[in-house]
Amino acid sequence: MRNMNLTRLDMAVAVSVVLIAARLLLPSLQAAREATAEQVCADRLRTLGGAVDRYESAHGFYPDAWYFPSDANGSTAYGGWCTQLLPYLGRMSLAEKYRFDKSFWDDENQPVVRERIAAFECPASGDDHLRRGLRKVGGPEEFADREMAIGDYIILRGYIDDFSSPPPVDSRVPGILMGMTDPGTRETAVNVRPRREMVADGLANTIMIGERSGRPGMWVNRKKVSDTNTLFVHDGGWASYQSIWPRTFEADGQTIAVTNVGPRAINCNNGFGVYAFHQGGANTLFGDGAVRFMNEKLDSYVYLALLSRQRGEVFQPGDY
Question: What is the pLDDT of residue 146?
């Protein structure tokens, strides 16, 4: 009986030791997982950078950030940049199946847009990467039975300058990648298909693609406030537009700074800004193919300068 009591005591001590060790190790394991996810994310952005570079070499210009029916580009459909990169990501079979004469929500494109593509996903954003229910652009028609696989990376088109005095003729300051839009309503710098030589600030000084994770849900300051991102009816699908005019925000991280440059820019919300689930910041892909981690405390003026391609605002990595 005495030996049995001693055995039970030994077991209780051993269990306690294991629990304490696990409690001490869990933070380290979690940190290791987060570091791995951040590294995989950076590698996937580099993959996208390589695909963009190969596209530009093949066509003489960068892919459209987004496109819609227009005489300027001969398009008869709505779509984004990710489908244009499929052949340069080793996904030629998907590219051949995709109907570029049909919009991304069209039923004929369902077999393609429902397929998850690792290069478009950040592992830190979790495994829920399917959006159910699509709506036609410009109208109330909904397709509740149609689905799109989610993508976590977006083109940062540049920024909206609604804070300068006097205000500019066109408030849109273009970044590296810009889509064709309705001719006659946009300034030439915004309407043209850009080429690498047009990036006067230098490819190494200009952000091209950033993270925007958590969609189709709406996230603000690391809290999920809605299952649907109400700002964009198609938001999240890798085959959709996947590009924004990023904004800066007030201190609450939700209110868009309209007539001024807000004090915050990174990891505020995933509506109009760069948003990631990495600790302390987000990965961004620059025009030269380098991936740099943007601290979420980054000065908003520096952030905007890194988004424009030809305003003469050049910063070194040590500045951010």
Answer: 86
Task: Give, as one character, the DSSP assignment of residue 168.
Answer: P
SS3 140: coil
Contacts by 221-226, CB closer than 8 A, 24 or more apart = 221/253, 221/254, 221/267, 221/268, 221/269, 222/267, 222/277
Looking at residue 86, the DSSP 8-state letter turns out to be G
More confident residue, 203 or 1: 203
What tokens were used for 16?
């306690």
Segments making up each domain of the chain, as ranges: 33-319
Question: 233 pLDDT exceeds 50?
Answer: no
Q: Are 194 and 62 in contact (CB under 8 A)?
A: yes
Tokens 């055995």: give the residue: 7
pLDDT in tens, 57-112: 999 999 988 877 764 555 678 889 999 999 999 999 999 999 999 989 899 999 99
In this structure, the strands spanning 158-160 and 130-135 are unpaired
- Residues forming beta bridges with residue 207, ordered by sequence position: 286
- Quote the strand ranges of 142-277, DSSP E: 142-149, 153-156, 158-160, 172-174, 207-211, 218-220, 223-226, 243-244
pLDDT: which is higher, 46 or 126: 46
Question: 131 pLDDT exceeds 90?
Answer: no
Q: Say if CB 306 and CB 207 are below 8 A apart.
A: yes
Query: What is the enclosing helix (H) or strand (E) of 29?
Result: helix 2-59
Residue from 213, 236, 51, 48 nearest 123 by CA: 213
Measured CA to CA, the distance from residue 123 to residue 101 in angstroms comes to: 32
**Distances from the Cα of 97 to the Cαs of 47, 76, 81, 87, 134, in angstroms?**
22, 17, 16, 11, 20
The listed range with the strongest mean pLDDT (81-95, 154-168, 219-233) is: 81-95
Q: How far is CA 164 from CA 138, 161, 171, 311, in A?
A: 31, 6, 9, 14
Structure-block tokens of residue 21 = 């060790």
